[in-house]
Amino acid sequence: MPETWSSSVDAHLNWTPGTGSTGLADAIRAAIRDGRWRAGVVVPSTRALAHDLGLARGTVTRVYADLAAEGYLTTSQGAPTRVATAGAEPKTGPPAAGRARAPRWSLEPGRPDPSTFPRDQWLAATKRVVQHAPNSAFDYGDPAGALPLRETLAAYLGRARGVRADPSRIVVCSGFSHAITVLSRALRDLGHGEMAFEDPSYPLFRELASAGGQRVVGVPVDDDGLRVAELRSPTAVVTPAHHFPLGVTLAPARRTALVRSGAVVVEDDYDGEFRFDRQQVGALQALAPEQVVYAGTAGKTLSPSLRLGWMVLPRSLVDPVLAAVVASGAQPPTLNQLVLADLISSGAYDRHVRRCRLDYRSRRDRLVAALPPHLEVRGISAGLHLVVPLSLDAEADLPAVAARHSLGVEPLSPLWIDRSARRGGVVVGYGASSKPAFGGALAALLAVLHELTG
After folding, report:
1. pTM for the full model?
2. Do the Cβ atoms of 395 and 451 come closer than 8 Å?
3. DSSP H or E stretch at residue 315
4. How many CA atoms lie within 13 A of 158 on its CB side?
């Protein structure tokens, strides 16, 4: 039977010589759990315990540091080390709830194909930035965003989306969620307490606006986009180039009426680069730069994980929004901003967008051609999603049927604000799967729709 050892300073450790730091850590944990080392008491100093056990002091010091990190001990500069807990394992948060198994196939909207991320181009741009960026690039960044990115975006947005911008009016943010959060707070502080959203629209953004102090109301959408005549709010959040989720475009007469309404307009141009059937629709912002907040992101063109977005602001909103950005404490890393600027200015970003545009157009065409004739498609040929209308009864069965076919999709009706106006359907995000998996995802969708509609 191995010989155990108890410290001469009454440490009450059942430690076996030869087990080293691992055995010592186990012995101390056991002493704390058993109540022999009680909560709050001072433990032997590293020097004393090392002497008593015949170990190097550094070994004991490392064991104490590890146990402090685990929550068994507490340390403080200039004070003795004490037991943090006793009689039980250190407390942790509640166990994470079991997550449902992810579906095999995904056609969830709002997601680009993650396999298209231009790894080589991003790596090359990162190397160039790290080699040539000034030391200041690795300091705390400008709250408005890195100037090279703002200058690059001003030129890019002008030629690609018709946005009228200069770097002083651009604020870089961590995606549209961050943008709507800081805009809600800034507008609230300016006395704008109500924000209208298209009905239907993405619920998360409405929730963020509400959390930012805005009263959220809905304005109906029809085949010509937002019914501007029904807008009464001082602020309106719109997706004029490609409405989410119905996929319509805001008609020219309504675009004019909207900018003449007097409301502050937040233009979410979330997938404006992906128009397949005709010439790109220019940004609404060009009609009224001092009234429209233009918001865009790299989430659909590159990756949502980058958390890179931008706002082109009316001059009157620049300072209030910057104050809200600072208060939020959130901003994309400066290094990523500089890499994106390099990617755009080198032309690699445009080439990547063109490749993705061709791929997503091919997927949409393939999807539309495969649908049964009795199922119509809502939405222009653009972006990363389309809508297949269903009855509300059929939509109610969608989650269970999709789960049986291991397919991730999104029902349409929960996106409405006015529940009495909701319509059933499935929002199909044909960008979510990788190219090799798209065929399997499409087959699963067709099986789901067949089961729901016959």
Report:
1. 0.79
2. no
3. helix 315-328
4. 11
